[in-house]
Amino acid sequence: MSQARTNARKTAVQALYQWQMTGQSLVEIERQFVEEERLKDVQKSYFTELFHGVPKNLSDIDEALNEFVDRPVDMVDPVERAILRIGAYELLHRLDMPYRVILNEAINLAKYFGADGSHKYVNGILDKIAQKNRAVEIKAKTQAAK
């Protein structure tokens, strides 16, 4: 996985966090990120896909998360919520991307931005979403490993 794509995810977490906390428009937040040169070394097309794709598909994403989180999605820590939403978006809408890559990236984001141990919570939730939505892929990987 390219560093530019990893950076796109990191920047998308920050932008989504700001959107969740302030309710500012996506266009305004994106403009700020461009002006502050926070999209340097970032795969901009992927940042844009995540940053606009999560709010656009929010009801599907939150529905998938609500099945497995231990409290309403809106009550989840805002940093973890942004990471979970990105991971769920990728699991549901980027079937071209291996689920293990998505889980690893989300775990790393939680270790980077989240509270101590939040990576375990993020991994547990996203793994359950993967088991439900990527069952064919997971079964194929398991059989290939045998």
What does this structure look like?
The protein has helices at 3-22, 26-35, 44-56, 58-66, 78-93, 99-113, 118-133, 135-145. With 146 residues, the chain is an all-alpha fold. The protein has one domain (3-145): N-utilizing Substance Protein B Homolog, Chain A (Orthogonal Bundle), CATH 1.10.940.10. Helix 3 packs across helix 5 and helix 4 (58-66) packs across helix 5.
How would you summarize this macromolecular structure in one to three sentences?
It contains eight helices and no strands. It is mainly α.
Percent range of helical residues: over 70%
Q: Mind telling me the C-alpha Rg?
A: 15 Å
Report the count of strand segments: 0
The parts where pLDDT drops under 50 for at least 5 residues are: none
Our measurement of the CA-to-CA distance between the termini, rounded to an integer number of angstroms, reads: 25 Å
Average pLDDT figure: 94
Give a quick account of the main beta sheet: strands, pairing sense, barrel closure: none
Could you say which structural class the secondary elements and strand pairing correspond to?
Answer: mainly alpha
**CATH homologous superfamily identity:** NusB-like
Proportion of strand residues: under 5%
> How many DSSP helices?
8
